[in-house]
Write a structure and sequence with these properties.
CATH topology of the largest domain: Rossmann fold
Largest sheet: 6 strands, antiparallel
CATH architecture of the largest domain: 3-Layer(aba) Sandwich
CATH class of the largest domain: Alpha Beta
Distance between the termini: 94 Å
Radius of gyration: 30 Å
Oligomer: single chain
Shape: globular
């Protein structure tokens, strides 16, 4: 019976085969439909598996969606459909768009990790349950003061904000707010950080701040529309800022104030905010408060901001702000706004090939990219690189695309240290940085990118000791090789350049044989950070250097110091010494 049935069962398949053989287009259409149906089944199974976990957490996610103010509003049937797609493609989902100063936008997370399907147990999570490190934190850096309401229409903390849906930690939020001079740092929804000078909302029960931080499960970072707020102990440098405006100091009234600061107005109930806002609106980078009058302008040879006065000369309370000084008719309180000074932003390649080659050399992590940024702004010429770094090219360093021997530049960035490589250059600017700082900076770059940070696992794992073992000797040999084989070397210490940028950068430009534009140098002072400054210092909560590491590095410092002095150069700065 089985033999007789086989031809009968095969007949339909044979007919189908003959049909598609005659009409191959139909065959491919059939295959396409089959694959589409399979994909739909796969997606449906994904939605079904999410139902059990996302149903309970939808009420937690919706506040964030509604706060975004962007295209995906929460609550409608349309947004529910988009939410399903968002869960499928959660690795590429964008964080809600927020508005703020340009320098904060670069810190915002671009990818949302797998948080969308995670519910929150409101009964079991609290500061007490997660440990005392958050609730009772008072380590000289910040003190936890409580859980507060946060209204999206009227924020509890009304300074700058940033978001990181993968790596937010309490320390990172505190560090960013402190660096910008805020008194308070608040964390919300496990991934959002808000800064402010005063809290403008009531406090609530600690149990309402119940969400784990995305970057550290041992701490809590607020909740839906709830802020875990810390009071910051500001350093002297941090305290010299006011929100998004940078405090520049107290300065004597310029001789020709109308020419030096071309825009001005009398403001009723004067405050720092009002003057900064006015100058920002008029697109000036400086806001100078003189009692009831606000002046706006740019740094120029008529008003360089180099001659600071005693701040007591500017002590006059603002009419509209109890805790800030607004200066007076003779001494101005000056802030730098977020307006970009465009006088030093134009850059181009040399129009004709140059005969000589000058190196901008440094050990990795010693400030080479930063120095390159400064020289480009101060001269208007693109600098080339010995390498090609796509991330640097995308950030505006167009010289990355040219071969370093093209001759279309005044200077070439390099980290090379061999004799053959060094002798290929006719002269060099040698950047040297404290090895303790340089090693940590390069370790962060190696494991976190140009503006990222190495993880705690990398610091505490085998990577860090191995890195120090291999790279610390290179820090010394790099400097020694350039001093030995370099034909004409100008030594620049990173710390000196940071401390006295104007005169040190001026000396570097003269060394390159170029004319100095004082207006451009003054412009550079206001644009000095560029795109590769890490957000905050992010000091580790422990010293990563062991006693053995320190003994080795201190010996290398003494070796470099001796080599510099033998060439009649100043030795290493004092802060290189053992701390």
């Amino acid at each position: 019976m089985r033999v007789a049935r086989e031809p009968i069962m095969a007949r339909p398949l044979l007919k189908i085969h003959r049909y598609f053989r005659c009409k191959p287009v139909h065959f491919f259409s059939f295959i396409l439909l089959y694959l589409t149906a399979g994909s739909l089944v796969f997606l449906h199974s994904g939605f079904s598996s999410d139902t059990s976990t996302t149903g309970a957490s939808r009420s937690v996610r919706d506040p964030l969606i509604s706060e975004g103010g962007g295209g995906a509003g929460g609550g409608s049937s349309t947004s529910d459909g988009l939410g399903l797609l968002g869960r499928v493609f959660k690795e590429t989902r964008r964080a809600p768009q927020r508005f703020g100063p340009p320098w904060m936008k670069k810190n915002r997370a671009q990818d949302v990790p797998e948080w969308a399907g995670r519910g929150v147990d409101h009964h079991t999570r609290s500061h007490g349950a997660k440990g005392k490190t958050t609730k009772g934190m008072d380590d000289g850096r910040a003190k936890y003061i409580g859980c507060y309401v946060d209204d999206t229409q009227k924020r509890a903390l009304r300074g700058v904000s940033f978001f990181d849906y993968k790596k937010m930690t309490v320390f990172r939020c505190q560090d960013n707010c402190a660096e910008r001079g805020y008194l308070y740092a608040g964390l919300e929804f496990g991934a959002e950080c808000y800064c402010g000078h005063k809290i403008q909302a009531p406090n609530v029960s600690e149990s309402e701040c119940n969400m784990e931080c995305k970057g550290e499960k041992s701490n809590l970072c607020g909740g839906p529309k709830r802020l875990s707020i810390y009071r910051l102990e500001l350093s002297q440098e941090s305290a010299r800022r006011y929100g998004s405006a940078i405090f520049k100091g107290c300065f004597k009234r310029p001789d020709n104030v109308t020419l030096a600061l071309p825009a001005s107005a009398v403001i009723k109930n004067m405050s720092v905010d009002k003057c900064v806002d006015m100058c920002t609106e008029k697109e000036f980078s400086l806001a100078a408060l003189a009692g009831e009058k606000c002046h706006c302008g740019f740094p120029t040879p008529l008003f360089t901001l180099h001659d600071h006065e005693d701040e007591e000369l500017c002590l006059q309370r603002c009419a509209g702000e109890d805790f800030e000084s607004c200066g007076n008719i003779d001494f101005f309180v000056v802030y730098q706004t977020q307006v970009q000074d465009n006088r030093c932003l134009d850059r181009r390649f040399l129009p004709s090939r140059t005969s000589g080659t000058v190196a901008l050399a440094s050990f990795p992590g010693a400030g080479n990219t930063w120095a390159r940024h400064l020289i480009e702004l101060a001269t208007g010429w693109e600098l080339l690189s010995y390498y090609f770094d796509g991330s640097l090219y995308n950030k505006g360093f167009k010289g990355e695309r040219d071969h370093w021997r093209s001759g279309r530049t005044i200077c070439i960035k390099t980290h090379e240290s061999g004799r053959k490589e060094i002798e290929a250059f006719d002269a060099s600017i040698l950047m040297i940085r404290n090895p303790y700082k340089a090693l940590m900076a390069e370790f962060n770059r190696k494991y976190g990118g140009h503006i990222g940070f190495a993880s705690q696992a990398h610091w505490r794992g085998t990577e860090w000791p191995e890195f120090v073992k291999n790279y610390a000797p290179w820090w010394a040999s790099h400097t020694l090789d350039w001093l030995k084989y370099g034909k004409k070397v100008q030594v620049v210490h990173f710390e000196d350049l940071k401390r006295d940028l104007f005169s040190r950068l001026k000396g570097m430009i003269i060394f390159l044989g170029l004319e100095v534009s004082e207006d451009r140098l003054l412009c550079v002072e206001g644009q000095k950070d560029g795109n590769f400054k890490r957000s905050g210092l992010r000091k580790l909560e422990y010293d990563p250097y062991t006693a053995e590491m320190r003994a080795t590095i201190d010996g290398l410092i003494r070796t470099v110091d001796t080599a510099l002095r033998k060439r009649n150069l100043s030795g290493v700065p004092e802060d290189y010494r053992p701390r």
